[in-house]
Write a structure and sequence with these properties.
Blueprint lengths: L1 H23 L5 E6 L1 E17 L2 E5 L4 E6 L6 E2 L4 E5 L2 H36 L5 H33 L2 E3 L4 E6 L6 E2 L7 E6 L4 E9 L11 E6 L2 E20 L2 E11 L10 E18 L1 H4 L35 E6 L8 E10 L3 E6 L6 E7 L20
Antiparallel strand pairs: 1-19, 2-11, 2-15, 3-10, 4-6, 4-9, 5-8, 6-7, 8-10, 11-14, 12-13, 12-15, 13-14, 15-18, 16-17, 17-18
Length: 398
């Protein structure tokens, strides 16, 4: 029993000595660093949109009836005023014939009213008829003239409806959608039924992109746009901002603005309706000094007493602990920390920054190519507040 007590006391003494040594001589802290390099930086705004033809026309029917013939189908090339469909003209032909008969009847009635008025006028001159009879005859003449005009207008309406049985294309282009089949009945009671959708020229398309209100202030016409579509994930297409529209679109309290991007689709690879992932280039600088954005967020902790010697970033090291972000200075400069190979403590350096791509930031002044900047701290031992705490009553080791 006495021997076991001696072993326990020796273990406690060794542990206390180790804790005391670590307190007076803490494990040095290593820094994760990055090397200042030269390269290209592109600052861009990202957005999504849909590809659409520049001119997209829906061809409908102004009258109701059965589809008798179709002269166009999907992907058909059509020209302006070319016939694309024909409705059954039989009911409208009958309406024209009826209107023609009504016009003939009105003309006959007008002739009779004219003869009656002339006869009454002669009789009044000879004092053989009353003036009231002449007035009645003149009124009947005017009524017959009005009736003829009404019937002629009805004939014109019937003829227009008959002409509308033949549907023509208003533009030259390609049919991208067909909504009816032969024998189908279309009803034009309230809205004109859509028969075809025709795109003017698919070699020139546009993207209607939704840009967030926080980014729309940086956009202007003429900016270069790079985008991809899911159909060709390894190909980058190009376009130009044509218009930034002022009408806001609010969806679930998110405000966006429609930005129109002109696209050259000479090879016809892009199709209407495709979803495009856009990168609108705001600025692009080539062969500039750049640093990782993590170096801008680094700030050394106050409890670091003895920094470790310079150690470059080594793959497989534990993840760095997050650091607080220093604020920019009033003059526009930023503070970063540089660690030279022959020094053990990082030094603050004032730099002026340029554009950023979200990963790297351009340095206009304050650093040279090859300098080493501190990104974060790699802690080799847990912090004091990270030590596991014992819960419950302390138990004896034996």
């Amino acid at each position: 029993m006495k021997f076991l007590l001696i072993i326990v006391l020796a273990a406690l003494s060794a542990g206390g000595g180790w804790w005391y040594w670590q307190t007076l001589h803490p494990e040095p802290v290593k820094y994760q660093t990055g090397v200042v390099t030269r390269g290209d930086i592109t600052q861009a705004v990202t957005a999504t949109g849909q590809l659409n033809p520049v001119e997209n026309v829906t061809v409908g029917s102004q009258i109701s009836g059965n589809i008798l013939k179709l002269f166009a189908d999907y992907n058909s090339q059509v020209k302006e005023n070319e016939v694309v469909a024909e409705l059954d003209p039989a009911p409208y032909t009958a309406s024209v014939h009826m209107a023609q008969a009504n016009v003939a009847y009105a003309q006959a009635a007008l002739e009779l009213a004219q003869l009656t008025a002339n006869r009454k006028a002669e009789l009044v001159k000879e004092h053989a008829a009353a003036q009231a009879d002449l007035d009645t005859a003149v009124a009947n003449l005017h009524q017959a003239q009005a009736t003829l005009q009404i019937q002629q207008a009805s004939l014109e309406t019937a003829q227009v409806n008959l002409d509308h049985c033949t549907v023509t294309s208003p533009i030259s282009g390609i049919v991208i959608s067909r909504s009816v089949d032969v024998g189908e009945t279309v009803a034009a009671s309230l809205n004109a039924p859509v028969l075809f959708t025709i795109a003017n020229d698919l070699a020139k398309m546009q993207i209607d992109a939704s840009v967030a209100e926080g980014d729309v202030g940086q956009l202007e016409a003429g900016q270069v746009v790079n985008f991809t579509v899911d159909a060709y994930p390894y190909r980058t297409f190009h376009g130009v901002v044509a218009q930034v529209r002022n009408s806001p679109v609010t969806v679930q309290n998110v405000v966006t603005y429609d930005t129109v991007v002109s696209v050259n689709n000479a090879d016809l690879k892009l199709k209407p309706g495709m979803t495009a992932n856009l990168s609108i280039v705001l600025a692009q600088h080539n062969n500039v000094i750049k640093i990782p954005n993590a170096a801008l967020r680094f700030r050394p902790p106050e409890d670091v007493k003895k920094p470790a010697p310079y150690a470059p970033n080594v793959p497989g090291t534990p993840p760095p602990r997050p650091q607080a972000s220093p604020a920019a200075h009033h003059d526009g400069s930023h503070t970063i920390y540089v660690l030279a190979p022959d020094e053990t403590k990082p030094k603050p350096v004032q730099v002026r920054l340029g554009i950023t791509d979200g990963i790297y930031t351009e340095v206009l002044d304050g650093l040279n190519d090859g300098d080493v900047v501190v990104d974060s701290i790699l802690s080799t031992t847990p912090a004091a507040n990270d030590q596991p705490q014992m819960r419950g009553p302390m138990r004896r080791p034996f």
